[in-house]
Amino acid sequence: MWKSVLIQKTLPLTASYLLLIFSAISLDYLLHVAHLAWVGRYMGFAGTALLVSSFSYSARKKKLVSNGTLKFFLSLHCKAGWIGTLMILIHSGIHFNALLPWAATALMLVVTGSGHVGQYLLKKVRDEVKMKMKQLGVEKSDDDLDRQQYWDTLTLKTLEKWRAIHMPMVSTLMALTLIHILSITFFLNWK
After folding, report:
1. Which of 124 and 57 is assigned the larger pLDDT?
2. CB–CB of 60/70 below 8 Å?
């Protein structure tokens, strides 16, 4: 099982996701210690801009953008999504003063986790399962390979369904973000 796709691919992705959360907490803490907590407020704008720019991958996939390779846009999507999420997590900080921003932040973490795992892992898992299935045709009697095939196939089937969940969550996140921005604009003291 230690050589399964589940272990070899999921653990690094989990570490990357936990690094995102740890980095946000650490940077927010450092800003507060340096009496620069106000910087976090403006990271929300930059983080949102990065997340919006990450939608260029979807635009390229749907051929709304014709220049550039899908690989480039996927890389942009992943990097802008990770950095944008980090900036928005710093923006949200550890403040318990409103439910809407916390709901949006929690959903953003779920969407980021879903996208992080699904977008990157699905292709890798699919390729590795195909390769291992070919190997299984030669060595069917080996129990370890049968067990490994089971875990790999289970992982692949689960990940193929991620997009059906990911896209509605993205839409809900966009709605919560828009409501948050509109409410801040409406209630902000512009003096």
Report:
1. 57
2. yes
Q: What are the CA-CA distances from residue 128 to residues 59, 98, 106 (Å)?
A: 28, 45, 32
pTM of the model: 0.71
From 165, 158, 108, select the one nearest 5 (Cα to Cα): 158
- Give residue for tokens 């936990």: 18
In 3D space, the residue among 127, 124, 126 whose CA is nearest the CA of residue 116 turns out to be: 124
In this structure, are residues 80 and 50 in contact, taking their beta carbons and an 8 Å threshold? yes
Tell me the torsion sign for CA atoms 112, 156, 129, 143.
positive
Give the count of beta carbons closer than 10 Å to the beta carbon of residue 42: 11
For residue range 8-65, what is the model confidence (pLDDT) as tens digits? Answer: 667 777 888 889 989 999 999 999 999 998 898 889 889 999 988 988 888 888 888 8
How far is residue 12 CA from its own chain's centroid? Answer: 14
On whether the CB atoms of residues 95 and 32 are closer than 8 A, the answer is no
Please classify residue 99 by burial: count the beta carbons closer than 10 Å to its beta carbon, then call 0-12 exposed, 13-18 middle and 19+ buried: exposed
